[in-house]
Design a protein that fits this description.
This protein is an alpha/beta fold. It has 13 helices and eight strands. It has an eight-stranded mixed beta sheet, sandwiched between helices. Helix 4 packs parallel to helix 5, helix 6 crosses helix 13 and helix 7 packs across helix 11. The longest helix has 27 residues. The two termini are 15 Å apart.
Length: 328
């Protein structure tokens, strides 16, 4: 009998997970839920999920794995809605960027016997320049050659971690196991800081007297530098994520302020050589990162080896067969 994976939230991340799992219909049954009924219908019509259930609690009652692909400000409420309908042994994962606070919510709300594992997915290198979000931006290979950070509270059973690692392998991604503190620190630098820098640039330029004219010629460079800050819902999530990860974000902002001060000093003192070196170092660093990202050969990083055949056998065979026997 196929394993049921319920995906709550059918935006780009949730819908892309559904499309990736669609290649494994012999092993997986996907149930989709979204707060917008029209999105649910479109997701089922486009083959993103096998079926949908607009009743949130009943959408998870038979699930072996529940994926919360919703903004952070919706996670606590969602956990509260589904907690009493999760069967023993179910694993709940979320895809928000900051895990410390979400882990506390999960430990507070989820019943005994239900396990929480945090995931932070990165998109594959082929889609780094994509700016679209939502269901229309979903891709079956969005996570190809991508890394998922996996963090779990102390005491989480190995089978739950193995289940989530196998699930990630089906999406085309690979797992790196981190602790909650490390994961939140990485996300402060890689995701939150760029968005806050975009916000600072917007505020700094739009509040200048010359903006009325500058806005008419602001073009590709300005668009690229401010594109990290997008929709209203994302802004609400950014606010909450930033406050939940305050210590790491402050550390990143302090480093950013120092870097800007160094540039300012070089410009103010007309240090041509120093300014050129800083800009060249940044440019080369970006190119090196892009090369590494596209090759995805992270030899220096400790990854969890996921052999797809053996994991699928354990994930969709022995593990749940044993659980079914216990239920009977």
């Amino acid at each position: 009998m196929p394993v049921q994976i319920t995906i709550i939230g059918l935006g780009q991340i949730g819908a892309s997970i559904g499309l990736a799992l669609a290649a494994h219909k012999d092993k997986v049954t996907t149930v989709g839920h979204d707060k917008e009924f029209s999105i649910e219908r479109l997701a089922q019509k486009n083959g993103i999920v096998d079926k949908t259930n607009h009743n949130l609690p009943s959408s998870v009652e038979n699930a072996n794995l529940v994926v919360l692909a919703v903004p952070v400000h919706q996670v606590r409420e969602t956990l509260g809605y589904i907690a009493q309908d999760l069967k023993k042994g179910t694993v709940v994962v979320d895809t928000t960027l900051v895990k410390g606070q979400v882990t506390k919510w999960a430990q507070e709300i989820l019943p005994k016997g239900v396990h929480y594992v945090g995931l932070v997915p990165a998109i594959g290198p082929d889609y780094l320049q994509e700016t679209k979000t939502g269901l229309d931006a979903a891709k079956a290979d969005l996570f190809s050659k991508a890394i998922f950070l996996l963090s779990a509270p102390y005491g989480t059973p190995g089978e739950a971690i193995e289940l989530v690692s196998g699930f990630v392998s089906l999406t085309g991604g690979s797992v790196i196991i981190t602790d909650l503190i490390e994961s939140d620190g990485l996300m402060a630098s890689a995701h939150l800081l760029p968005q806050l820098v975009s916000a600072a640039l917007l505020n700094a330029t739009m509040e200048q007297p010359g903006w009325q004219e500058a806005r008419k010629v602001a073009s590709r460079v300005y668009f690229a530098a401010t594109s990290a800050l997008t929709g209203r819902e994302d802004t609400e999530a950014l606010q909450m994520l930033t406050l939940h990860d305050r210590e790491n974000v402050i550390h990143g902002l302090n480093a950013m302020i120092l870097a800007l001060a160094d540039l300012r000093d070089d410009i103010e003192d007309a240090k041509e050589g120093s300014l050129k070196d800083r800009l060249k170092k940044a440019q080369e660093g970006r190119q090196n990162w892009l090369n590494e990202r596209f090759t995805a050969n992270w030899m220096e990083m400790k990854t969890v080896p996921v052999e797809k055949i053996s994991v699928k056998e354990r994930l969709f065979g022995t593990m749940f067969n044993r659980a079914d026997k216990k239920d009977k």
